[in-house]
């Protein structure tokens, strides 16, 4: 089944921001750069639970029952695997959650082809930080995700990247190949566009949550390991450039919001870059040139959502290309037109602050937001 989308005013809109518990991010106001990252490390580490890798029904296996069900594409409660999901449908195969003994398709071992079973994939490979015994990293559901066993094996411990020519391609289009992204020329794994932002924000979560442990990962550094040995930037600059590009290219989705909430219920911590995607560019800086980023679709994100003080902030690549912003009511009435330099002044003051649902429209994007 194809993913169901709603079109309004010629553009796709979604509610794109989660709401963290009140006061969860206290102490972050006014912080930027690595000081903000360090504060977030404290917040998302305090009280965080290590539920274990899982044996049979526990740990990650149990978390996946609430964090990774497909209620977005096929909408049939099967496993949502970002390495095999076809957003436009139909999927080549689907997995039922749970042990084989209970009618599910989870496994520790699989066949030499896709569609045998699903297991647990460290989106930041565990070889980068010490292996399966390195806890709590190895057990963290915020970046350890369920995937097809065989595709997981093909990805191996290659970093994420972009390749113009594939040496191997999965059934949904994820691929291996030689990296063509500026700054790295080794073998990489490239997921499909639909999930690049998800995986980028998981990677940024990792170096934030484990900031105080990053220096201990130095013995595992290699040419293919993008960790740079520092506790501030965390990754080599080429990889930061990639993650910032993907985060902008694929903004936060409802799937990510729901997954963040589900993992929070289990682990008692959150991915802050799903709750506040603007923090990505407030902490790290891309060194990509204008020509480097011109090749992908420009998208902007808005926050906070819901809006409570009449100020709507924007972030993302391509803000200098946005000439006009229009605000519509949910029934299509134009109520405000904004002509300003969004790259310099990344804030819109709303004229209409009445509670309700509105649409922000640019030349090529429409996004729904709520005023409370």
Automatic annotation (TrEMBL):
Residues 1-20 form the signal peptide. Keywords: Hydrolase, Nuclease, Signal. Residues 302-370 form the Secretion system C-terminal sorting domain. One of its GO terms (molecular function) is nuclease activity. Pfam families: Endonuclease_1, Por_Secre_tail. Belongs to the EndA/NucM nuclease family. This is Secretion system C-terminal sorting domain-containing protein. It comes from Kaistella jeonii.
